[in-house]
């Protein structure tokens, strides 16, 4: 179950070569316009499709450097996940780890689990493996837009706009509930969480959750069923740690308000700072990207036939671009999410391998000719010139390369871009 898995080979290519690979695999080649470009152009009238970009002033916070101890703990977990050859399951879903799962094990993902476990490497690794098992058994990657579509026909969940730190805004609208309690409601939430993660811009790894308990003509009780709420809460806490950047609840009904008052004393102080109750949402979401239903300036109208395919096509395009970049760079464990999302940073192989190879080769190449001449000259002062040249030749290229191997994949993968710390 845990035999050592061979290292993913590092592509012996520089930055230009990797970018050429990305271009060669670019899914948008041959298309007149990308999905993102087409959605940036909003027609006159009500908005019916997602925003692609945050406002120019909205920027993710700068990443915070890890301490030496934190970096060492990250390396420990990274080394552990590289040994996983099989994903366990008690529901018949066990089997070899696949590319989608290796790609999910980014540097940022591992750090999120470390922060969630108070920097305990063994516990973080245990939870990471548990989540990989859950993703298989839940069938997360098998959920399709067609399967989930009936749950979202009234727009009870939408992804629209970004907050002032470029977090995508995920709206939950319980008043628009249109189905009876079922497992598909839970699948709906998990599916939408994956889509809001797809929508994250480079440098951002958390979401802005906006829950509007406003009642509707068809539904006055907007409190979710207890069993569904409990399962959803468990999924969020266990399998999406450190993903909540901010949560705002408005139009809170009496029952929910009483429940919140009871549990708030037990909520972690750092988590409590992320929660906002019945506040003016324009304090942290630009009005030009905030729905009028919650105090913004965006005249958004939920039209399922327009919104649903637009959201799914955009997320599919973004996911495909990340996959292309991951494959072109060498399919690393612990790859940078900033790189995968198209941020202005190199992949692991790009930024380390060429420098290591050149620095290692330089000393050998510079010393070899002089050393050979000095060793031969005293012993053979009258040897013909041709013989001297034969004895003092520079070491062949193959020999030099043999003494200066390129850094192995593990060494390269262990040098990652810095990332920031956030709390659950």
TrEMBL record:
GO terms for cellular component: cell periphery. Residues 147-302 form the CRAL-TRIO domain. GO terms for molecular function: lipid binding; phosphatidylinositol transfer activity. CDD domains: SEC14. Residues 398-410 have a biased composition (Low complexity). InterPro entries: CRAL-TRIO_dom (IPR001251), CRAL-TRIO_dom_sf (IPR036865), CRAL/TRIO_N_dom (IPR011074), CRAL/TRIO_N_dom_sf (IPR036273), PI_Transfer_CRAL-TRIO (IPR052578). Residues 398-424 are annotated as: Disordered. Residues 415-424 have a biased composition (Basic and acidic residues). Gene3D superfamilies: CRAL-TRIO lipid binding domain. PANTHER family: GH16843P. This is CRAL-TRIO domain-containing protein. It comes from Pseudogymnoascus verrucosus.
